[in-house]
Automatic annotation (TrEMBL):
Domain MsrB: 85-207
Name under which the protein is recorded: peptide-methionine (R)-S-oxide reductase
Transmembrane segments: 15-37
Domain of life: Bacteria
E.C. number: 1.8.4.12
Keyword Ribosomal protein: no
Enzyme category, top tier: oxidoreductase
Organism: Dyella humi
Similarity comment text for this entry: Belongs to the MsrB Met sulfoxide reductase family.
Catalytic activity line of the entry: L-methionyl-[protein] + [thioredoxin]-disulfide + H2O = L-methionyl-(R)-S-oxide-[protein] + [thioredoxin]-dithiol
UniProt xrefs under Pfam families: SelR
Length: 210
């Protein structure tokens, strides 16, 4: 009877454990740790979208969704996109860079996503993380695309924003820390929230299957 693990597998696990440093494995949680150590992805591939060097502490467990019909594919391991300003400038337009990397705001009614008109989902313009389903979009009349909830809470990050003498809640992409907009408590049911986003920070993907 042969061993369940050959020498190459053991060497790989020793290398990854050394790289992760024990505490990082615990911080990532059991599922992510198993996936990193070769315990199976459950059919989901790990995203590696960045040309920049990424260390093991930047492995994220986000929620993934299909472009075909928005079907929830479950949790997936994603490497956080970490780029220099020069690399971000290459990836983004000037307007998107100002919003996403400098926490700017586009002019109201200037973006293409202000009013919902088709089924689909919105992905981060920087790293492609799924952010919002168009089914949760509504016409807020503000001039910015608005949603009553994100497609998955773990795919966005919310932080207190006290800039310009106001107290607001800023929303950024969990996959690359890019600024997306703000969330307010004047939205419609069922959440009563209004995620007020910048069009240039997102790209719309129309469902291929109705």
């Amino acid at each position: 009877m042969t061993s369940a693990f050959d020498d190459k597998t053991l060497d790989r696990r020793r290398f990854l454990l050394t790289l992760l440093g024990g505490g990082t494995v615990a911080a990532l949680g059991g599922i992510a740790a198993v996936r990193l150590l070769g315990g199976g992805n459950g059919g989901r591939a790990m995203a590696a979208a960045t040309p920049a060097a990424v260390n093991s502490s930047q492995i994220l467990l986000l929620e993934c969704f299909s472009d075909d019909d928005g079907h929830h594919l479950g949790p997936c391991d994603v490497r956080k996109l970490v780029l220099s300003d020069a690399q971000w400038h290459q990836r983004l337009s000037d307007a998107a860079f100002n919003v996403m990397r400098r926490a700017g705001t586009e002019m109201a009614f200037s973006g293409p996503h202000e009013k919902p008109n088709s089924k689909g989902l919105y992905r981060c313009a920087g790293c492609d993380t799924a952010l919002f389903n168009a089914a949760t979009q509504f016409d807020s009349g503000t001039g910015w695309p608005s949603f009553w909830q994100p497609i998955a809470k773990k795919n966005v990050i919310e932080n207190r924003d006290t800039a310009y003498g106001m107290v607001r809640t800023a929303v950024s992409c969990a996959g690359c820390d890019s600024h997306l907009g703000h969330v307010f408590d004047d939205g419609p049911p069922p959440t009563g929230l209004r995620y007020c986003m910048n069009s240039v920070a997102m790209r719309f993907v129309a469902f291929r299957v109705s």
